[in-house]
Amino acid sequence: MVSKNFDYRLLGGFLLAHFLFYFSFQDRHIFWYIFPASLLVLTIWAIMQEEVDDRVPFVKYMTAGIVSGFILFGLFYFGKYMINLFNLPLTGSIAKLYRWFSPKEFWQYIALVLIAVPGEELFWRGFVQKRILRHTAVLPSVLISSAMYASVHIYSSQPILVFAALVSGVVWGLLYAWKRSLPLVIVSHLIFDLMIFIISPLN
Length: 203
Known about the structure:
Distance between the termini: 50 Å
Number of domains: 1
Order of helices and strands: HHHHHHHH
Mean pLDDT: 95
Radius of gyration: 17 Å
Number of helices: 8
Shape: globular
Low-confidence stretches: none
Largest sheet: none
Helix content: over 70%
Strand content: under 5%
């Protein structure tokens, strides 16, 4: 017998995310056409189900978002340094990720900033993690939602991207659980993406 507390909206959103990410990763040549459209759909789903949390004043969430974004990038930079130091066979995978999925044209960067980054945070933290928090404690909610976030990246066929999504998901999940501010995690995600795609790529 299914519990009356079973969250059908959460399950429906998660299955929808898998469906959309599956099609986003099917053809890397049109990835940047399908991916932003998929995030628009997930954004609509999220805002129809949940209110946007914004419990931190502007200056504080901007400061915390910028600092945390740089810290997360530093963590990834250190990871790449260790890969090079120990000559691990992952450099080719990182280069392939950049070649296949990083934005290259101006409109793709606009889509990243205005659609993909806010959409991911609105859905994965503002919808998925928020609903899981109703059923469990903070740490399990962060780990479960991060694992769910990482799981949709399996369709890239790149384990390193799945792992990167898991790590970043944990960081943004902890930030969201700490301050319950979506603008904060959106700024953090944006700073991280600007660093990793534009200012200091790791390929």
